[in-house]
Amino acid sequence: MLVLAVDTATPAVTAGVVELSGGTPTLLAVRVTVDARAHGELLTPHVRDALAAAGRALSDVDAVVCGVGPGPFTGLRAGMVTAAALGHALDRPVFPVCSLDAIAAAVPGEPLLVVTDARRKELYWATYDADGRRTSEPSVSVPTAIPLDRVNRVAGARIVDLGLPFTGPEHPGPVGLVAAADLTAEPGPLTPLYLRRPDAVEPGARKRVSPG
Amino acid sequence: MTIILGIESSCDETGVGLTRLNADGSIELLADEVASSVELHARFGGVVPEVASRAHLEAMVPTMRRAFEVSGLSLSDVDAVAVTCGPGLAGALLVGVSAAKAYALTLDVPLYGVNHLAGHVAADTLDHGGLPAPTLALLVSGGHSQLLRVDNLADGITEIGSTIDDAAGEAYDKVARVIGLPYPGGPPIDKAAQRGNPCAIAFPRGLTGPRDAKYDFSFSGLKTAVARWVETRERDGADVPVDDVAASFQEAVADVLTAKAVRAAVDLGIGTMVISGGVAANSRLKALAAERCAAAGIALRVPRPRLCTDNGAMISALGAHLVAAGVKPSSLDLSANPALPVATISV
Ligand SMILES: [Zn+2]
């Protein structure tokens, strides 16, 4: 089964082509650019180029896997709408994956904290047990509010020293995305993990324009 | 015969349009589906960019599916994709542009990143056919107030004037709030104005002095004048005559917009005027424009209200004009440009 994996939940713009056989994902080709402002510009060219490098056509793709965050909003949406449109145009299923799970899937075998940059001095995070199972809901908070008692390593964004050794990838990769997806189930809704409400305030009382 | 898919997401409407460019150059509308997030913004009194962007992501593929259902076409019939790449809200534009690129790549068809404002002008060609050259376009909505000289929809648009502060539709929203009418302010003010006296209050006409920029607009002073007038009444303990305020405000807006547009057309020797954008649905603006254009010997064209507000059909129509003119498509690394200048019709 040929799987196209995309993720734009971190500053990395990632598109990869993965062959999945007997439950084992094998990377055929990947294109990654780390640039938080280039998600909209580069993702589709990366999809095109990764497929070309893998020697496959879009019509060969059997499924699309898409990281749904958590991630800073604008870039995340570029990846998600791209995946949704590819799925629609190809008439193939699109499987949502928590982007933190995709990072964790690349680091099996030990209790793990995965963090990514949420900006505003906060981190998106989730914890995993030694079997790679997520043991907390994906959350957003300041670094000091993250519980570290049941983990011994950190994967993901190396932007804050949490007093634990770093391991594994900084961004979700295609193999991690495919490994974290359950391609045998019906795909769930393609809903972003925003974790924050939009910044918007309802207007209060009308401001007076007259002096006094 | 060419089928063009058009995608619009610059503000709070997710629009998908399908048109057919015929061999004789005529453009036929086949689908025009719009999902609006306007109710989500109502309690904030204006469009909240993050709320709009979230809604675009949710609505994009469902709106696309509806457009194909309505038209009876299938995705494989599409020969080109056109998408608004600016001007507009950055996060909102990004959703449409990203979707358009994915469709263009998958369908293996050319992609055209196009200008939203030129799209508003192109909308009229769906109702009234090709535009004579030159045409004067007055674009009025919550986001724009512009006078454009249109020589050619593929590569010849020049800005003659624009607002130096608020857009006309923005002034409607703010005044509606001052007199206790709902958001968006255009329709309720228009309705209240029908019952009011447009001469009841002499509100100022911005930028109409002898030394002011002839073709530019300003609505900020008008908005403030309305607020001040209402506050004075309230302070004096008098009732606010909402209908008269609405009618007098609307008269000031329509007067300035039509006076400047007609003057520009006469000065530049342009015989056709198109009015488009959400405010083009305003009854007083249309009536006054018809009256003044007739007096000046100018042919007036206003697309049906549905095509005046933001939609994907106008973007599809503009795409059709670009295809017909043989304009070079955009590259697949196209990105959104929130500040795209109006003279840049496609990128
Ligand atoms: Zn518009």
Give me the secondary-structure topology.
The complex is a heterodimer of chains A (212) and B (347).
Chain A lengths: L1 E6 L4 E10 L2 E11 L4 H16 L8 E5 L5 H18 L3 E4 L1 H7 L6 E6 L5 E6 L10 E3 L11 E4 L17 H7 L32
Parallel strand pairs in A: 1-4, 4-5, 6-9
Antiparallel strand pairs in A: 1-2, 2-3, 6-7, 7-8
Chain B lengths: L1 E7 L4 E9 L5 E10 L1 H5 L6 H23 L8 E7 L3 H18 L3 E5 H13 L6 E6 L4 E8 L3 E7 L5 H11 L7 H10 L24 H16 L6 H27 L3 E5 L6 H14 L2 E3 L3 H4 L3 H13 L23
Parallel strand pairs in B: 1-4, 4-5, 6-9, 9-10
Antiparallel strand pairs in B: 1-2, 2-3, 6-7, 7-8
Helix pairs in contact in B: 2-3, 4-11, 5-7, 5-8, 6-8, 7-8, 8-9
The structure holds zinc ion (ZN).
What does this structure look like?
The complex is a heterodimer of chains A (212) and B (347). Chain A is α/β, with parallel strands linked by helices and 212 residues long. Chain A has a domain at 2-100 and 171-180: Nucleotidyltransferase, domain 5, CATH 3.30.420. Chain A has 4 helices and 9 strands; from the N terminus they run E-E-E-H-E-H-E-H-E-E-E-E-H. In chain A, helix 2 (73-90) links the parallel strand 4 and strand 5 (94-97). Chain A is globular, with a radius of gyration of 19 Å. Chain B is an alpha/beta fold and 347 residues long. Chain B has helices at 38-42, 49-71, 90-107, 116-128, 168-178, 186-195, 220-235, 242-268, 283-296, 305-308, 312-324; strands spanning 2-8, 13-21, 27-36, 80-86, 111-115, 135-140, 145-152, 156-162, 272-276, 299-301. In chain B, helix 4 crosses helix 11 (312-324), helix 5 packs antiparallel against helix 8 and helix 7 runs antiparallel to helix 8. The mean pLDDT of chain B is 96. The chains are: A alpha/beta (212), B alpha/beta (347). The interface between A and B is large, with 39 and 41 residues.
